[in-house]
Amino acid sequence: MNRRKAILKLVLSGLFLGLALVMPFLTGQIPQIGAMLCPMHIPVLLCGFFCGPLWGGVIGLIAPILRSLTLGMPPLFPTAVCMALELLTYGAVSGVMHKILPKKKGFIYLSLIVAMLVGRGVWGIAMLACTSFSGGTFAFSAFLAGAFINAIPGIIVQLVLIPILVMVLDNPKILNRNR
Predict the structure, then answer these.
(1) CATH of the domain at 104
(2) Domain extent at residue 125
(3) Where are the alpha helices (DSSP H) in the chain?
(4) How many structural domains compose the chain?
(5) What letter does residue 25 receive in the DSSP assignment?
């Protein structure tokens, strides 16, 4: 990778990290809405698509932990720890899928859906491990509620917004990536 592309990925990753830290403020006044809309997920998924699996994974891992340590939300354990593993997976999987599949509309959706499903699975496993470690339980119904049922509005927003942004912004002329 040439130096210019590396710098562009670094700058974009910083932008996506900043968005992941700031976007929850849009829903922060009503925590239930924030949990439903999953505002940190969008910049991490976009980072995976635009910057690749390494940067997407790193930003996904850092964002919830950094937000927890600096702003107190989400709570560090188990929420931010489990979110970090989930978002790491989102960024890495969306980046890998977008890299290996054709850059066509259907494949963008496929990449997004696979990343969302695998990430939610990782979150469920992490929650099970963390709650077991701390002596609690994590029922399958809690997994379904947290990963899918309560997150339906956020899933819809992600399925509508992310592919549109990727299709529009993935044009080499937009980010001036061919020079």
Answers:
(1) 1.10.1760.20
(2) 3-175
(3) 3-22, 31-37, 41-51, 53-71, 81-100, 105-133, 140-144, 152-169, 172-175
(4) 1
(5) G
